[in-house]
Design goal:
It is found in: Secreted. The chain is mainly β and about 180 residues long. It is about 10% helix and about 35% strand. It folds into 2 domains: about 80 residues, no CATH class; about 70 residues, no CATH class. The protein has 2 helices and 16 strands. The termini are far apart.
Protein backbone atom coordinates (compact mmCIF):
# COMPACT_ATOMS: atom_id res chain seq x y z
CA UNK A 1 0.00 0.00 0.00
CA UNK A 2 2.81 2.40 0.87
CA UNK A 3 4.41 1.69 -2.52
CA UNK A 4 1.17 2.68 -4.28
CA UNK A 5 0.97 5.94 -2.33
CA UNK A 6 4.60 6.79 -3.14
CA UNK A 7 4.09 5.87 -6.80
CA UNK A 8 0.93 8.00 -6.97
CA UNK A 9 2.79 10.94 -5.38
CA UNK A 10 5.62 10.61 -7.90
CA UNK A 11 3.18 10.41 -10.83
CA UNK A 12 1.32 13.47 -9.52
CA UNK A 13 4.59 15.42 -9.25
CA UNK A 14 5.53 14.50 -12.83
CA UNK A 15 2.09 15.49 -14.13
CA UNK A 16 2.23 18.93 -12.51
CA UNK A 17 5.86 19.78 -13.31
CA UNK A 18 6.65 22.37 -15.98
CA UNK A 19 9.32 22.09 -18.65
CA UNK A 20 11.66 25.01 -17.93
CA UNK A 21 13.18 24.71 -21.41
CA UNK A 22 10.00 26.41 -22.62
CA UNK A 23 10.99 29.60 -20.76
CA UNK A 24 13.61 32.32 -21.19
CA UNK A 25 14.53 35.22 -18.92
CA UNK A 26 16.11 38.61 -19.46
CA UNK A 27 16.57 41.96 -17.71
CA UNK A 28 15.40 45.31 -19.03
CA UNK A 29 16.57 48.66 -17.67
CA UNK A 30 13.53 50.83 -17.01
CA UNK A 31 12.44 54.28 -15.91
CA UNK A 32 10.86 54.64 -12.49
CA UNK A 33 7.73 56.49 -11.40
CA UNK A 34 8.36 56.81 -7.68
CA UNK A 35 8.68 53.22 -6.49
CA UNK A 36 7.01 51.76 -9.62
CA UNK A 37 8.62 50.41 -12.79
CA UNK A 38 7.59 51.64 -16.24
CA UNK A 39 8.03 48.94 -18.90
CA UNK A 40 6.42 48.83 -22.37
CA UNK A 41 4.02 51.64 -21.38
CA UNK A 42 2.84 49.77 -18.25
CA UNK A 43 3.44 51.09 -14.72
CA UNK A 44 3.46 48.54 -11.89
CA UNK A 45 4.83 48.20 -8.35
CA UNK A 46 6.03 44.61 -8.00
CA UNK A 47 4.63 42.03 -10.43
CA UNK A 48 2.76 42.29 -13.71
CA UNK A 49 1.47 39.56 -15.97
CA UNK A 50 0.47 40.98 -19.39
CA UNK A 51 -1.72 38.40 -21.10
CA UNK A 52 -1.02 39.66 -24.61
CA UNK A 53 2.73 39.18 -24.14
CA UNK A 54 2.62 35.79 -22.34
CA UNK A 55 5.25 37.00 -19.90
CA UNK A 56 5.75 37.57 -16.19
CA UNK A 57 7.41 40.84 -15.10
CA UNK A 58 9.06 41.60 -11.75
CA UNK A 59 10.00 45.16 -10.81
CA UNK A 60 13.46 45.45 -9.22
CA UNK A 61 13.20 48.94 -7.72
CA UNK A 62 16.74 49.12 -6.35
CA UNK A 63 18.37 48.13 -9.67
CA UNK A 64 15.78 50.00 -11.80
CA UNK A 65 15.24 46.89 -13.90
CA UNK A 66 12.43 44.53 -14.78
CA UNK A 67 13.09 40.79 -14.76
CA UNK A 68 11.10 39.29 -17.61
CA UNK A 69 10.25 35.61 -17.89
CA UNK A 70 8.71 34.68 -21.23
CA UNK A 71 8.37 31.82 -23.67
CA UNK A 72 11.50 30.58 -25.39
CA UNK A 73 11.45 30.06 -29.13
CA UNK A 74 9.82 26.69 -29.78
CA UNK A 75 12.02 23.94 -31.22
CA UNK A 76 11.89 23.20 -34.95
CA UNK A 77 8.56 21.61 -35.83
CA UNK A 78 6.77 23.09 -32.81
CA UNK A 79 4.53 26.11 -32.28
CA UNK A 80 3.11 27.79 -29.20
CA UNK A 81 -0.50 26.95 -28.34
CA UNK A 82 -1.07 30.50 -27.15
CA UNK A 83 -4.74 31.22 -26.71
CA UNK A 84 -5.96 34.66 -25.75
CA UNK A 85 -7.20 33.49 -22.34
CA UNK A 86 -4.19 31.39 -21.31
CA UNK A 87 -2.26 32.78 -18.34
CA UNK A 88 1.51 32.60 -17.94
CA UNK A 89 3.16 30.03 -18.07
CA UNK A 90 0.37 27.92 -19.64
CA UNK A 91 0.48 30.23 -22.66
CA UNK A 92 3.99 28.85 -23.36
CA UNK A 93 2.74 25.31 -23.99
CA UNK A 94 3.72 23.99 -27.37
CA UNK A 95 2.54 21.41 -29.85
CA UNK A 96 4.93 19.74 -32.22
CA UNK A 97 4.27 18.51 -35.73
CA UNK A 98 6.26 15.55 -36.98
CA UNK A 99 7.79 16.08 -40.38
CA UNK A 100 5.60 13.28 -41.75
CA UNK A 101 2.44 15.07 -40.48
CA UNK A 102 3.35 18.53 -41.76
CA UNK A 103 1.27 19.70 -44.69
CA UNK A 104 2.45 23.33 -44.73
CA UNK A 105 5.68 25.19 -44.05
CA UNK A 106 5.73 28.91 -43.28
CA UNK A 107 8.34 31.16 -44.94
CA UNK A 108 10.34 31.06 -41.67
CA UNK A 109 10.25 27.21 -41.71
CA UNK A 110 7.58 26.58 -39.07
CA UNK A 111 5.82 23.27 -39.79
CA UNK A 112 2.02 23.27 -39.59
CA UNK A 113 -0.46 20.43 -39.79
CA UNK A 114 -3.69 20.87 -41.72
CA UNK A 115 -6.08 23.11 -39.76
CA UNK A 116 -3.28 24.59 -37.64
CA UNK A 117 -2.37 28.29 -37.39
CA UNK A 118 0.70 30.16 -36.15
CA UNK A 119 0.77 33.76 -34.91
CA UNK A 120 4.17 35.19 -35.81
CA UNK A 121 5.96 38.18 -34.31
CA UNK A 122 8.51 38.70 -37.09
CA UNK A 123 6.93 39.37 -39.44
CA UNK A 124 3.70 40.38 -37.72
CA UNK A 125 1.37 37.95 -39.52
CA UNK A 126 -0.79 34.87 -38.93
CA UNK A 127 -0.08 31.76 -40.99
CA UNK A 128 -2.97 29.33 -41.52
CA UNK A 129 -2.65 25.87 -43.05
CA UNK A 130 -5.77 24.55 -44.80
CA UNK A 131 -5.92 21.81 -47.42
CA UNK A 132 -2.11 21.83 -47.75
CA UNK A 133 -2.16 25.55 -48.60
CA UNK A 134 -0.55 28.21 -46.43
CA UNK A 135 -2.46 31.49 -46.12
CA UNK A 136 -0.88 34.64 -44.70
CA UNK A 137 -3.13 37.05 -42.78
CA UNK A 138 -1.54 40.50 -42.50
CA UNK A 139 -2.27 43.58 -40.41
CA UNK A 140 -4.46 46.21 -42.03
CA UNK A 141 -2.74 49.43 -43.03
CA UNK A 142 -2.90 52.18 -40.39
CA UNK A 143 -5.04 55.21 -41.26
CA UNK A 144 -3.32 58.48 -42.23
CA UNK A 145 -1.48 60.06 -39.30
CA UNK A 146 -1.14 56.72 -37.51
CA UNK A 147 1.66 54.16 -37.22
CA UNK A 148 2.18 50.70 -35.77
CA UNK A 149 2.72 50.81 -32.01
CA UNK A 150 6.42 49.89 -31.78
CA UNK A 151 5.99 48.86 -28.12
CA UNK A 152 3.84 45.97 -29.37
CA UNK A 153 6.23 44.71 -32.07
CA UNK A 154 7.55 41.82 -29.95
CA UNK A 155 4.05 40.45 -29.34
CA UNK A 156 2.46 37.88 -31.63
CA UNK A 157 -0.22 38.60 -34.21
CA UNK A 158 -2.73 40.32 -33.82
CA UNK A 159 -1.36 42.33 -30.85
CA UNK A 160 1.64 43.45 -32.93
CA UNK A 161 -0.87 45.03 -35.37
CA UNK A 162 -2.03 47.65 -32.86
CA UNK A 163 -1.69 51.22 -34.05
CA UNK A 164 -0.97 54.52 -32.37
CA UNK A 165 -2.41 57.78 -33.65
CA UNK A 166 -0.99 61.15 -32.72
CA UNK A 167 -3.55 63.91 -32.55
CA UNK A 168 -2.16 67.07 -34.10
CA UNK A 169 -3.36 70.58 -33.33
CA UNK A 170 -4.97 72.52 -36.12
CA UNK A 171 -2.69 75.18 -37.64
CA UNK A 172 -3.54 78.72 -36.41
CA UNK A 173 -4.50 79.91 -39.91
CA UNK A 174 -7.06 77.10 -40.16
CA UNK A 175 -8.65 78.24 -36.91
CA UNK A 176 -8.69 81.90 -38.05
CA UNK A 177 -10.52 80.99 -41.28
CA UNK A 178 -13.05 78.80 -39.51
CA UNK A 179 -16.63 80.10 -40.01
CA UNK A 180 -18.56 80.96 -36.93
Amino acid sequence: MLQRILLFGLALELATSFDNSDLKTWLATVQMDGDKCIYRNYTFALYYNPKEACEDWTCNKREKTVSVVGCSDPPTGCIRNASSDAAFPECCEKSCVRLTDATCTTPNNILLADGQAYNSTDPCVRYECNNKTITTVRCSEPPPGCTRDSTRSSYGYPTCCEIRCVKTASPPEALANKPG
